[in-house]
Amino acid sequence: MSSSQNKNRVALITGSTSGIGRAIAEQLSNEGFTIAFHSRSSVVDGEVLAGSHPNASYTQADLADQTQVKKLTSAVLAHHGRLDVLVNNAGINAMIPHTSLKEASADIWRSLYEVNVIAPWTLIAEAEQALRKSSTQDCPSSIINISSHAGVRPKGASIPYAASKAALNHMTQLLALSMSPTIRVNAIAPGLVDTPMTESWSEAHKLWKEKSPMGRGAKPQEIAHIASMLVSSSYLTGEIILSDGGLSLT
Ligand code: NAD
Asked: Average pLDDT in the 75-101 region?
């Protein structure tokens, strides 16, 4: 899809003031999309980003709160009048050894599911009508969920995190079936990516350096490139693109 064809198309990327979300927002903006930036708390960063990308907006919302999740979609639709792409990128993690069952309390399970599973579900439900309206046969609307390799293999920072991302992957495939052909739904399941979330994860950096075929974690821009590929496709749906530099092969 050329940047002139994307000219009036709008993409909402959650958690887009840092890390993977910001890289996806910048990539899609370079490709001509109008970006709806969002974050939980970094309002100044969000407003600066919106001011430096053509026609962009910024909305603050805590996705752990369902009222704010719904307000996010309505604010974006009220401002831009349409939606073509929704990237559910915002997510939270919890580092808990898989053997420490009591440490993974019910509250931790609930908070991870709230942000990593239920918020994407509500955003998709609230955005559905607008995504259907803007969709065309040549250019079906697109949803991308950012899950994790931990949702594909029995690995990850904690069992509740891994299970929440596995739920997001399964939701992706179920929605790909139920929303087709008007709306395509795919997921990207990154391995290690160099972002603020993983700065202190020295063991993971060592693992990727020593064991993965690519010999390193991904840069956020490399995940953004995959998002761009998924958005530009008029055919792919229900895919979960494992993006771990080949670690799962070892
Ligand atoms: P990040 O910390 O830079 O970004 C996370 C974003 O989520 C932030 O913008 C934050 O504001 C937002 N967020 C968190 N809780 C929120 C809430 N309650 N309400 C609204 N926004 C909230 O980290 P990142 O590494 O760029 O992570 C982006 C996504 O990629 C996450 O879903 C994460 O689980 C996933 N992921 C990251 C890695 C990695 O190695 N970095 C690997 C696999 C999956």
From this structure: 97
